Amino acid sequence: MGGMNPTPRQRARAQAIEDIKRIAREQLASEGSAALSLRAIARELGIVSSAVYRYVPSRDDLLTMLIVDAYNSLGEAVEEAEARCPREDLVGRWRAIGTAVREWAVARPAEYALLYGSPVPGYHAPVEQTGDPGTRVMMLVVTLLVDIQRGVPVAGVDGVLGRDLAVVREAVGVEVGEEVLARGYLAWTSMFGLVSFEVFGQYKGSFSDFAAHFAYQLDRIAAGVLGL
Fold this sequence. Notes:
Blueprint lengths: L7 H24 L6 H8 L3 H5 L5 H25 L6 H18 L1 H8 L10 H8 L1 H14 L9 H14 L5 H22 L10 H15 L4
Keywords: DNA-binding, Transcription, Transcription regulation
Protein name: TetR family transcriptional regulator
GO molecular function, one term: DNA-binding transcription factor activity
């Protein structure tokens, strides 16, 4: 048997929450996450502020909704791009991951800033809600590292860093040596560093074609860091 159709009240509630999130995203784009206000959203929707609280208990709950939606939107975009590549094309998969991240971020800079910009004062994201959505892109990179490891000898990393990497490896539950995992961290942070510099305007006056610069650097990371 199929699931029950939502009732008119359930549909109305779902639509109200979507309207609240839509106005909230507009606030993010115009004023930034720190200025997010449920009262301002209520004014924009033409309702009393107490009505908003029936759907969203607090500003922090609204931020969490927006973060989860943004992580899932980013994750879906990157997963779709990566899935179009043959599994044996490791360079192509890396390019697809990076390019999809950049394209999503450039198209939705306010949401990217919410995920990867400065923390919102007084807000702490609940990991039980944001953890899985927030690791969707990372797990694509981890899967790529597993495939990279199959082609090279397993190597460790000495000292406290090696122990830290071993803990991460066990937590993620993948067969990857510490040395490849360390390279993965460098590739991951380099890719997001490139995206963040572009989205937050740090390259202003430096490049006329940001996409070409990103593609070039992405290939340098593939060759010089990931060994592809």
